[in-house]
Specification:
With about 210 residues, the chain is an alpha/beta fold. It is built from 7 helices and 8 strands. It has a 5-stranded parallel β-sheet, with helices on both faces. The protein is globular and about 45 Å long.
């Protein structure tokens, strides 16, 4: 396997990301994790950098008849990324896309509120924001997350992820000011192949990471 050494778990991957961010002198104001898988990494990065941790939430918009294939994604604030190629492949019309966009935006808002509890969303205007996930494949949800952060007025956006395929990483460079990725293997098949422990993160665990009680 190219880049053969696997991460022990998400926390180790987050610790390694933090080292790389510090090496690059990233002066972060806040870390935003993409739940649920991004939260163990986000906690490690935020603790290492000494900044607050919060979430940025987006939901995939699935294709008609094939909901696992993303024809887009929408963040909790309504920011949208649309996969025009995928929309064309599946022949989904604007009415379908808009209906699913509204449905998934509401789901994203509900999810964000569940994780934050009584806390207000963070103010991002003018800030250096580090967006963390446990890896990307097509990157559909993180693209919508980045649109959200940009629309909130962030001054500088850094994407920090342990692993992703080269083409997706290149595309993310167009949406963020800086991309930090530890592995970009050409043999990429799935994020989980680069972790020894890739157990699903529960909502309870995610909320604990967000609160700092991991």
């Amino acid at each position: 396997m190219e880049n053969a050494r696997r991460f022990a778990d998400r926390t180790e991957a987050g610790e390694m990301l933090a080292v790389e961010l510090e090496r690059r002198d990233v002066d972060a104001d806040i870390v935003l994790a993409v739940p649920r898988g991004g939260l163990p990494l986000g906690r490690a990065v935020a603790d290492a950098l000494g900044v607050p941790l919060d979430v940025v939430v987006a939901k995939k918009i699935g294709a008609p008849g094939n909901p696992e294939y993303a024809i887009g994604a929408v963040a909790s604030d309504g920011s949208v990324w649309r996969n025009e190629e995928g929309v064309g492949w599946f022949g989904s019309d604007d009415d379908y896309f808009e209906r699913k966009r509204e449905e998934e935006a509401e789901n994203a808002r509900t999810k964000a509120a569940r994780y934050r509890g009584e806390r207000e969303p963070p103010e991002l205007a003018g800030k250096t924001v580090v967006v963390v996930d446990d890896g990307v494949a097509t990157g559909s949800t993180i693209r919508a997350c980045l649109r959200h952060v940009r629309n909130a007025g962030a001054g500088h956006i850094v994407v920090a992820i342990p692993v992703g395929p080269p083409d997706t990483i290149h595309e993310l460079e167009e949406l963020a000011d800086e991309v930090v990725c530890l592995k970009t293997p050409s043999n990429f098949m799935a994020v989980g192949q680069f972790y020894r422990n890739f157990d699903q993160v529960s909502d309870k665990e995610a909320i604990a990471y967000l609160g700092g009680d991991s």
